[in-house]
Amino acid sequence: MYDLLLKNATIFDGGGGPWYRGDVAIRNGLIAAVGALDSGDAVETIDLSGDALSPGFVDVHSHSDFSAVMVNDVDGKITQGVTTEVVSNCGLALVPAVPDKLGFLRDYMRPYIPEGIDASWEWRTLEDMMDRIDASKYVTDLAFLVAHGPVRLAAMGFDNRPATPEELEHMKSLVADEMRSGAVGLSSGLIYPPGCFAGTEELVELCKVVARYGGVYATHMRSESGDLLKSVAEAIDIGRRSGCPVHISHHKVMKQFEGDSEKTLGMMEDARREGIDVTCDVYPYTAGSTMIGALLPPWVNEGGVDRLIGRLEDPETRKRITEDMKKGLPGWDNFAKDSGLENILIFTAERDKSLEGKTVGEVAAERGGDVLETFYDIVVSERGNSTVAMFCQSESDNRRIIAHPLSMIGSDSHPAATSGVYASRRSHPRAFGTFPRVLGKYVREDHVLPLETAIWKMTGFPAQRYRLSDRGLIRKGLVADLVAFAPDAVRDRADFRDTNVPSEGVRFVWKRGTLVVRDGRMVAGPSGMCLRATRG
User: What pTM did the predictor assign?
Assistant: First the structure.
């Protein structure tokens, strides 16, 4: 007897092949059978005629770990069909939390933790944090990367210099510890301090450790603008020299370099012909989001938040910052210049809530001040604890990357919710809309890729990439994480001014065979757990 039988579905099984019509049976949280099945053999039967049925979506690039250990009822992901997330991307995470460097880590992660959340920092290691999450459960299952930023902070703080041999050994030891705890790879954020202070050799040595444990190197590259091609080459070289598979995070091209994705994707294809395992992910928007301090030249962030504020408050140093903001620096992604500083949208502000939802240009107009000086004043008054959106990416390149065989879909989103502490916190609309936006805009409306391929990029491909062997496909014996949606109606509704709005057309989501979402609303509590990679 089956616990649940899903009848008459149009099945997209996650493998990338053509759809077919059939039934899926679930028993004890697993897929028990797929085919033409008898309704009399199930406790409950649901007719899915007219609906598409796919594996639960695997968000290959997420930041839900920013608060998973503290808040577990966020609905932004699960209501769009995401049942598994790969987290601790971009070199950003809450661990390792070494006591004598904890102050640095608190400052580093503060922009991502909303008011009202008690960040006790009682955890110290990834294993400790995963145990705490498992005790309270989470909305989705979480697979963790080791984040390079906290690892470097633990060894040498915000120092802008190469690591000493002793510091490098300390970092390698920390990475090994977290890989043994079940991490699926290493992430880097090479535009953020302290990641931007690390050289290629340091990353190669850390990736050699990751490779020994069968992990993947996921990188927010050193540049996604003027030095994009050099950055792709560096990422590939790290894979070549370390033997570690490489995954390029949120691959994109800035408007002023439109067309460069032909070159970058070609570089990845060439690398694979050489035997280097490289892939990428992409989100379906032409605006990114980051912490406000990342809009400043990297040297301004050296030494942590107090040093940053001190530099901005010193008139002579502020003049030097202005010169660099206007002319740029070699190897630095000047997002403010790419977007137009006046167009930078403020998502979150810790101290002055009136800033939220406004552009820097709008704030400057209200204050009757210069746009650049207003920007500096915001950074100082908020002590860097603000997140922003930048509108600077090429749509034609985005479409090319989405359609390419080496890409998969990731949201690059923070936690978001319609209730609780996150309800009043603005976020990028991708937190509620990424996967339905691909299905609605890029599949149904714009015909950028077929539905079968889109589902593969959201399910089987990311599960394969991170060796999540019990999910990502509709196959007998795998976890019964499933999504039923209306192919002709699914769409995103969140936008940059009204961000926390659930998508439409996602009819049902099952987590281990239990119904958790019905018509865009959660109907069951958190049941997700941390996924620990096994080392054979």
Answer: 0.93
